[in-house]
Amino acid sequence: MAGSDYLPAVLAPPRHRPSALDFDRSSYWLRRLLPVLRLRAQPPAPRPAASVRAAKRLNRAAGVLATSVLADSAVEHYRGAFHNPAMVLPLLSSALSLGVSAHGVADPRHEAHRVRDGVYALAAVTGIVGTGFHIYNVFKRPGGFTWENLFYSAPLGAPMALLLSGATGFLAERVRENQPGNLPRIAGLPAGRVVAAATGAGLIGTVAEAGLLHFRGAYHNPFMFAPVTIPPVTAALMGGVAVGRAAEPRRKTRWWLRLTALLGFAGAGFHIYGVSRNMGGWRNWSQNLLNGPPIPAPPSFTGLALAGLAALGLLEEHPDD
């Protein structure tokens, strides 16, 4: 009996007494695994509401437009020697618009911001007043409203880019203040349709300005037809978005918007090449930069295309039909 009790004890594996080294090893691996387990246990960060995402996209679009205006007006008004003290206002207004746009892109809140609203309103008013000054500049020249004066006086459409920046930012704040889960609205209308209509109208105005200046250049480069052919198609598609079914797939419209956004960067590249073609090239940059094609102007198409993409996002996430 005693032998039978002894036999299992002999065959059983010897018990391992934990040593201090074993405790050190286990505590080491425990310290290594705890951060991983803690990260896995954390719930994923919640996605911002559709209205906030669209508002950030619109803030980004307003910032791109403000950057274009800031650089363009700085060059053009420097060429005009700032003979009118009011020529400083577009630089200040566009710089402020750029700053509040960056603030809006980083803001996760659902309510509109009073400072951003005020700056965007100031940008829109400055754009309207600037358009008035440019119209006056055309009419005060000998001959008044003639093709030559339209070509070589202050560009009529340039201040409208600042108006578009302010209007886009204002729409961003109106979209942002909608409560999560509700259909985003602006003045009682679906926000996606309002932004789509504003984008189409802005594209038409920008095309008119580009068409006038490229007509002055006699379209000597075939690529000069791109700003007067691609954006009008995009504007027509955005008009269809504004009045069509919200739930309809918009793959073609999205691709045209992306092409229009790319056109803005490509246009800046072509304008850089246009500056280099002048006598002296970039070695004579101080003169050619002022007299060559405006490098900062084409990215206005990019800003408007970003606003159009924000409109599509609103309609896809909040269809109203």
Q: Can you tag this structure with a few keywords?
A:
mainly alpha, two-stranded antiparallel sheet, about 325 residues, 12 helices
Uncertain residue segments: 39-46
Helix vs. strand class: mainly alpha
Q: Order of helices and strands, N to C? A: HHHHHHHEEHHHHH
Q: Which descriptor suits the 3D outline?
A: globular
Account of the protein in words:
With 321 residues, the protein is mainly alpha-helical. It has one domain (50-182, 189-317). It is 69% helix and 1% strand. The chain has twelve helices and two strands. It has helices at residues 2-11, 20-41, 50-79, 89-105, 114-139, 147-152, 158-176, 191-216, 230-243, 251-277, 285-291, 299-317; strands spanning 185-186, 189-190. The chain has a two-stranded antiparallel sheet with strand order 1-2. A hairpin with a 2-residue loop joins β1 and β2. α9 (230-243) packs antiparallel against α10. The radius of gyration is 30 Å and the shape is globular. The model is unreliable at 39-46 (pLDDT under 50).
Topology diagram in text:
Elements: H1 2-11, H2 20-41, H3 50-79, H4 89-105, H5 114-139, H6 147-152, H7 158-176, E1 185-186, E2 189-190, H8 191-216, H9 230-243, H10 251-277, H11 285-291, H12 299-317
Antiparallel strand pairs: 1-2
Helix pairs in contact: 3-4, 3-7, 3-12, 4-5, 4-7, 5-7, 7-8, 7-12, 8-9, 8-12, 9-10, 10-12
